[in-house]
Sequence to fold (91 residues):
Amino acid sequence: MRNLHTLILVVTLTGCASRVWYNPNYDIQQTRMDLGSCRLSAEQQRNTGLFQMPSWQTNIQRDKLFEGCMQSKGYYLVERNQTPDPANWPK
Fold:
């Protein structure tokens, strides 16, 4: 079962490799700051002890918290080539 979850995660991450968070109102610098802030917030919430689950489940929970944080700031996922500066846009 664990191998199945790992395979699903790898396929999901590989399929999303060219997608990035984008908000047309923010530049690269603001996007980097928001990415860092949301990653830190999601990690801190995951580590509060509220999630007494296997590690793969807490990782999924962390990812959901991160996505919710980015969406609350007005970001959405787009293909990298749809950003103003595809070569430098943060992941």
About this structure: The CA atoms of residues 50 and 58 lie 10 Å apart. The chain has three helices and two strands.
